[in-house]
Amino acid sequence: TADKLANAINTSIAAKAPIASPVFTGNVGIGNASPGQELDISSTNPAVRLTDTTTSGLYHDLVSFGNDLRFSADGGNVQADTNIEFYIDNAEKMRITSDGHVGIGTTPATTFHAKRDNDNQLTATIENNGSATTGRHVLKLISSGTGSGTKLLELQSAGGSTTRLEVLADGRGLSQFTAKAWMRYDQDHNI
Question: For 140, which of 4, 111, 153, 157 is 20 to 30 Å away at the CA?
């Protein structure tokens, strides 16, 4: 029963020894008399907390908050530069840094950074299969800056050494190959 399980866990924790019979069958409910999964936690905002004892006060939460699922890394804000990291097959695939940057295949230096080291794979695909005939966007880039030199989009060659295409926020664009421009689109819509 739940009382026996709680007593066994509390006794084991107090003694810092393994539970004599660590295999339990059936489902365990916390706040739920009829659990639907192996562990079923029911309350207004059910949560699981992981406390890391290597740093005093450091904990991470997984919380059901209203209609949302919330991941909270370093909820007490006691450790600088905390990340949320996603691992698959024992290798990091994605991370969200403490400053809100998202990196896929890399540690991000910008708000979103995706990197792929396999030459035979696409880095990104953006697809819209909507059936609307007007107002449909596949990609929308928005910049609050409009001064000359503010770039809405810049495409560079490998290594980021040469700009191949840039679209400035004031509507001007420049596409170039090596050092020569082969097409210009100015703010007066001239090509």
Answer: 157
Tell me: the pLDDT tens digits for 58-77? 999 999 998 999 999 999 99
Give the up-direction half-sphere exposure of residue 60: CA atoms within 13 A in the CB hemisphere.
Answer: 11
Q: Give the DSSP per-residue string, 124-159.
A: ---------SSS--S-----S--STT-EEEEEE-GG
Neighbours of 77 (CB within 10 A): 11
* Among 96, 128, 126, residue whose Cα is nearest residue 113: 96
Given a cut of 70, whether residue 6 has pLDDT beyond it is no
Q: Are 101 and 84 in contact (CB under 8 A)?
A: no
Helix (H, G, I), strand (E, B) or coil at 3: helix
What is the rounded distance in angstroms from the CA atom of residue 48 to the CA atom of residue 43?
12
Other beta carbons within 10 Å of 108: 20
> Rounded to 10 degrees, what is the CA torsion of 39, 42, 45, 49?
-30
Residue 80 token pair: 């600088």
Q: Structure pTM?
A: 0.66
pLDDT in tens, 91-144: 999 999 999 999 998 999 889 988 887 766 777 777 777 776 666 667 777 777
